[in-house]
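[job 0417] fold request received: Hydrogenase maturation factor HypA
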Amino acid sequence: MHEMAIAEGILDIALDHARTHAAQRIERIHLLLGELSGVETEALSLAFSSVIRGTIAENAALTWERVPFTGRCHDCGRERRIRPADYLCPDCGGGMEIIGGREMRVDYIEME
Ligand SMILES: [Zn+2]
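[job 0417] inference complete; emitting structure tokens
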């Protein structure tokens, strides 16, 4: 299962981080999930609650925020939400360079 691998990756990052800072307990892991990252959050929560068992992250909360699919226009330079249908700037019709919406990463970790 895709989400199980993601959950293990997240836990690894958190445990590494905790080791570096000599933390005793991980309390929260906050993620940035792009609109187009394809992560199924319900499946991810489930997978996460199973991989943290027996670790110092056992009671950690997994939280996230969705990052909208956004781009910067090559022509006018504006940053806009991209309409996946055409990838064109809503203001001038120029091509958009993707600057957000595909990420799947740990934003911050709260520990004790
Ligand atoms: Zn434009």
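[job 0417] notes: The mean pLDDT is 95. The beta strands are 26-34, 61-67, 70-73, 79-81, 96-100, 104-111.
[job 0417] exit 0
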